[in-house]
Amino acid sequence: ITQFDNAYARQHENGFICQESDDDNFEVYACHPVLTPFLIGWAEWDYYQISCDLQRLRRVFMPLVKNYEWWMTYMRHTPDGTYGFVTPGMREPCGKDTHAFLPELTWTTGAFPATAFRAVETLAMARIATLVGRPDMVRFFAAEHRRLGDYINQHYWDAEHQLYNDLCDPNHVVAAYRDPQLAGQFI
Predict the structure, then answer these.
(1) Which of 72, 78, 128, 154 is in the most buried spot, having the most CB atoms within 10 Å?
(2) For residue 3, which phi and psi values (nearest 5 degrees)?
(3) How far apart (Å, rounded) are the C-alpha atoms in residues 94 and 91?
C-alpha cells in the first residue's frame, strides 16, 4: 500500500497519477503513461476490506476523485463516453537505457475491456464515497457505474455465446480481429 502513497505524492495538478517509478521514486515511462487502466480506487477498496482503515479512505478519497476526473477528461475517446486503450508500436530503445522506448501510439478500440475496467472503478468509488460521507460523490459514481454498465450490457453482451465479448473492428489491437468484412460482429 505504500506504493500507492508514493503515487499520490507525485499526483499531477490535473489528477494524473503515474503508474511507474524508478528506484529513486521518479516517474518513468517505458511507453505511453497510460497503457492500461489504473484501478487504484478498486485497490484501495480491496485494502479497506482487509484493514478497515477508514482514515486512509478519507485521506485518499479526493486524490482518487481527481484521478478519475483525469480519466474522464483525457482517456475517453468515443462520442458515447466509453474508453479505449492505447497501444504502442515498438521502436528502437533510446540511448543505453533499454527501458526508454519512444512508442508510436495508436488508439485502439478495445472499448469493452477499457470501459469494463472503468465500471469496476466507479463501483469501488461509490462504495468509498458512502463510507467517507460524500453522498454527492455516491450519486455521481453510482450513476457513472450504471451508465457504463448499461452501455456494456447493450453493446457487448454476446447472447449467442452467453458472455461479454469485444467486436471486430478494422482498428482492433489484435490483427486477427481487424477483418473489415466482420466489422461490428462479435469476436
Answers:
(1) 128
(2) -60, -40
(3) 9
The label of the residue with cell 454498465 reads: 149
d(CA 115, CA 113): 5
**CA 177/CA 169 separation, integer angstroms:** 6
pLDDT tens-place string over residues 94-128 = 333 433 333 444 444 567 778 888 899 999 999 99
CA distances 107 to 9, 53, 88, Å, are: 29, 38, 9
User: Residue ranges of the alpha helices (H) in 21-134?
Assistant: 40-51, 54-74, 111-131
